[in-house]
């Protein structure tokens, strides 16, 4: 058996085409969705992420602006920029690229963004709504994973989903969304004793750790659905996930490739949240 590849790039392209139509419909009522991205400092990876977010916005017709602030920006100055954007009627979504320099509290910044413009879905109010199952902006990577599973017609309800990793941006929320979809969810992390004993029970295994090729074929149940969130470089500098793709490909039923799996879905869900937010303009 060779696992079916869950093609995030293809699903993202389909969604981009749908979004283009929605954006042109909105334009008829004089609304152009607006996304503001704030980047503090000169981190190379962050600059790359921000560029691809802006490029995607342009593709679907979302107006995006970038505020690039110096690395020594104070928390007070950053908060004043957020305040300004919170009050800008042409801006529907605000995204502050993480990580931030040490002098700035990430939590203070996340909480300063108006929940109505929190298209990353990180504000405690939106996280609370996600937990209670209310409609809200969902965090982009976890939401993209659910969309990929649904597009591949994977049965989530009743399955045992194991999530390896418990970060606030990926691990914890993806477990919650799987629970909302009626999976039985187990979380694993760096203190988990005997990881393999748990991962081999998973019908759906989500791995968001950040260690190249951590998960091998001995770690999975035959026929499992594997979602690989990791973005790492292997010994040859090639982009790879947290799962050893070549090793598990023959025993998994479905698997997300890296690149081209979860990654393209993350930006796609950000764009969807921005369009949703524009629809809420009154
Ligand atoms: P974090 O570093 O914030 O979290 C890593 C998690 O992995 C922690 O919960 C940690 O446990 C756990 N962990 C570390 N070592 C082990 C181990 N040996 N066994 C089991 N668990 C372990 O990472 P992120 O969640 O932010 O990102 C994870 C990966 O996903 C990274 O490669 C990142 O680049 C990628 N990523 C990809 C995205 C995409 O769009 N494709 C989006 C976001 C991230 P503990 O809590 O105990 O420390």
UniProtKB/TrEMBL annotation:
<keyword id="KW-0560">Oxidoreductase</keyword>
<dbReference type="Pfam" id="PF00763">
    <property type="entry name" value="THF_DHG_CYH"/>
</dbReference>
<dbReference type="GO" id="GO:0035999">
    <property type="term" value="P:tetrahydrofolate interconversion"/>
</dbReference>
<keyword id="KW-0554">One-carbon metabolism</keyword>
<keyword id="KW-0511">Multifunctional enzyme</keyword>
<keyword id="KW-0521">NADP</keyword>
<dbReference type="InterPro" id="IPR000672">
    <property type="entry name" value="THF_DH/CycHdrlase"/>
</dbReference>
<dbReference type="GO" id="GO:0000105">
    <property type="term" value="P:L-histidine biosynthetic process"/>
</dbReference>
<feature type="binding site">
    <location>
        <begin position="165"/>
        <end position="167"/>
    </location>
    <ligand>
        <name>NADP(+)</name>
    </ligand>
</feature>
<keyword id="KW-0368">Histidine biosynthesis</keyword>
<protein>
    <recommendedName>
        <fullName>Bifunctional protein FolD</fullName>
        <ecNumber>1.5.1.5</ecNumber>
        <ecNumber>3.5.4.9</ecNumber>
    </recommendedName>
</protein>
<dbReference type="InterPro" id="IPR036291">
    <property type="entry name" value="NAD(P)-bd_dom_sf"/>
</dbReference>
<comment type="pathway">
    <text>One-carbon metabolism; tetrahydrofolate interconversion.</text>
</comment>
<keyword id="KW-0658">Purine biosynthesis</keyword>
<keyword id="KW-0486">Methionine biosynthesis</keyword>
<dbReference type="GO" id="GO:0004477">
    <property type="term" value="F:methenyltetrahydrofolate cyclohydrolase activity"/>
</dbReference>
<dbReference type="GO" id="GO:0004488">
    <property type="term" value="F:methylenetetrahydrofolate dehydrogenase (NADP+) activity"/>
</dbReference>
<dbReference type="Pfam" id="PF02882">
    <property type="entry name" value="THF_DHG_CYH_C"/>
</dbReference>
<dbReference type="GO" id="GO:0009086">
    <property type="term" value="P:methionine biosynthetic process"/>
</dbReference>
<feature type="domain" description="Tetrahydrofolate dehydrogenase/cyclohydrolase catalytic">
    <location>
        <begin position="6"/>
        <end position="120"/>
    </location>
</feature>
<keyword id="KW-0378">Hydrolase</keyword>
<comment type="function">
    <text>Catalyzes the oxidation of 5,10-methylenetetrahydrofolate to 5,10-methenyltetrahydrofolate and then the hydrolysis of 5,10-methenyltetrahydrofolate to 10-formyltetrahydrofolate.</text>
</comment>
<dbReference type="InterPro" id="IPR020867">
    <property type="entry name" value="THF_DH/CycHdrlase_CS"/>
</dbReference>
<keyword id="KW-0028">Amino-acid biosynthesis</keyword>
<comment type="similarity">
    <text>Belongs to the tetrahydrofolate dehydrogenase/cyclohydrolase family.</text>
</comment>
<feature type="domain" description="Tetrahydrofolate dehydrogenase/cyclohydrolase NAD(P)-binding">
    <location>
        <begin position="139"/>
        <end position="280"/>
    </location>
</feature>
<dbReference type="InterPro" id="IPR020631">
    <property type="entry name" value="THF_DH/CycHdrlase_NAD-bd_dom"/>
</dbReference>
<dbReference type="InterPro" id="IPR020630">
    <property type="entry name" value="THF_DH/CycHdrlase_cat_dom"/>
</dbReference>
<dbReference type="GO" id="GO:0005829">
    <property type="term" value="C:cytosol"/>
</dbReference>
<dbReference type="InterPro" id="IPR046346">
    <property type="entry name" value="Aminoacid_DH-like_N_sf"/>
</dbReference>
<dbReference type="GO" id="GO:0006164">
    <property type="term" value="P:purine nucleotide biosynthetic process"/>
</dbReference>
<comment type="subunit">
    <text>Homodimer.</text>
</comment>
